[in-house]
Amino acid sequence: MSQNTHKKSSPIASPEWVVSDRADRDLDPMMRRGWEAIPAPLQRGASFTDFATHEIAVPVGESVQAKAVRLHELVHARISPSSVPAALMTQLGISPASVRIAEEVRVNWVAGRALHSGYADIADIAEMTDGSERGLADEAVKNKDWRSALSLLLSTYNTKAYKVVKRRLRINPDWKEATDVIQRHLKERHWEVNASMAYSRARRRSDTSPVGYRWTDTKTKGSHNTFLPNGFVEHTLPLATTIDQWMNEPPSAPKKGRYKTTKPEEKNKPPVVPMSSHWEELRWGMTSLTESASSFIGRRKRPAMTGKFPSRPDRLLTDPERRIFREIVRGEGGTVVFDCSGSMSVSHDDVKAILKHFAGATIMAYTYRGDEVSNAWILARNGRMIGESEFEHLDLNHGNGVDSPALRWAIRQRKKPKDFIVWVSDGFVTGKGDYATGDLIRECALLSYKYNIIGVEDANEAVRLVAEMKRGVRPRHRFVEIIADSLGKTSKRK
Fold it and tell me: Across the chain, what does the average pLDDT equal?
């Protein structure tokens, strides 16, 4: 039988039907072309969905394995981005390999939910296996190739091959704990197909609403706009960030231990404030910091009258002060944490105003939007800030949920004792389910007191405060009213 006859008589994929329903279709010219379906052998790595050439390669036939692979590739066509520029991934700080693996996890999950949602005659993604996985796992163990092992483990998640792969990888004793940690992480974040609340989660994870990113071409230095599907931004990119960490070394479980009271020799150290289990987990959304801060960051050289070695002897003739030496000035910085609950707000102009005074500042915003979705974003760091168009797409102004985790993250960003932390919040903190308790407020109050976190109630006050701090005015133990009341102190408004 010729190849052309085979293509006509055997079931094969038609991506046009699923692509036509994408919310981002009108913004992406690569979505509006016809597709060519190419028969591919039923083996790992042979099938693909290529938006650039508009080719989809899938196995033909009625076997359950062939159907599962076709479903997998059609879901790629339905929810995956047509392209993700390498320069944008560099700006986001994630590797292309981790993005590819994370997208495989998302696609398998969405494809798996189709069967569990009651659709008739749908393929079972669990059958997507060709029997080679055991041998590939054994080869990774033999070569001590953790990166290949991790890629295989994650790409088979939610398929029948996963348990086989995990069992074979655990032959390496150094990988036993890592595979358990990874499985626990995926389960806790509801990446199992049979996870609860799957209907709303499936809708979010398959969302193709466009999210704009601005990125700079490293060769031409030109700026470009790219639109990525919202489900990809909210779920694939954060998972890719975690996978990058796993790629570096096999993860291990955190060591358990009790909080200890402060010893006499540690009396000058701030005592540990235990964290309640009633907070939401801090889940970072991806931001591309494409704009430069208004002033210098990091190291800057300037003339000086004293030093070890004269670097500019010519200034003996041109400079009345004869500054022939050179000194290095470091950009000052700190961290500004914005509570972006319904009663709070921050604008792109506020971010620029803060960076005008402290270009080295790290700025983050957080809000509670429900289970699983991102609730924290970096708005500025290392002399770079988020672009205005991307900032407008951030879904802010909902609940709180992560006040204490956000403050603890800010505390860890301190590199020098004089680095400030400003918390822009009205003090109405909440935890899981956006519920408030006195204990949660007390926890944030203790953190504010022990680590001298400066509290202000709105963005305008924050801008005025950093302007004063630039002139040398550094307030101590300044709290908003609710936090001060929890500590039994009077809020300071100096």
Answer: 83
Per-residue pLDDT reduced to its tens digit, 128-149: 999 999 999 999 999 999 999 9
Least confident of 76-80, 203-207, 298-302, 380-384: 298-302
pLDDT on residue 365 = 95
Residue whose pair of structure tokens reads 């990988």 in the numeric block = 175
Angle at 228 between CA 222 and CA 199, to 5 degrees: 170
Residues 313 and 357 in one domain: no
- For the stretch 328-357, pLDDT in tens is 544 467 899 999 988 788 999 999 999 888
Last residue of a domain, one of 156, 181, 205: 205
Residues 340 and 387 in one domain: yes
Q: How many domains does the chain have?
A: 3
6: left (phi over 0), alpha (psi -120 to 50) or beta: alpha
Quick check: helix, strand or coil at residue 461?
helix
Residues 309 and 380 occupy one common structural domain? no
pLDDT band at residue 195 using 50, 70 and 90 as cut-offs? low
- What DSSP line would sit under 355-403, residue for residue? HHH-TT-EEEEE-B-SSSS--EEEEEETTEE--HHHHHT---SBB-S-H
Contact between residue 466 and residue 359 where contact means Cβ atoms under 8 Å apart: no
Sign of CA dihedral 390, 392, 397, 403: positive
- What is the span of the domain harbouring residue 26? 3-205
Answer for the pair 323, 304: CB distance below 8 angstroms, yes or no: yes
**Angstrom distance (rounded) from CA 8 to CA 51:** 23
Domain boundary among 171, 188, 205: 205
3-state SS assignment for residue 228: strand
Could you tell me if 43 and 145 lie in one domain? yes
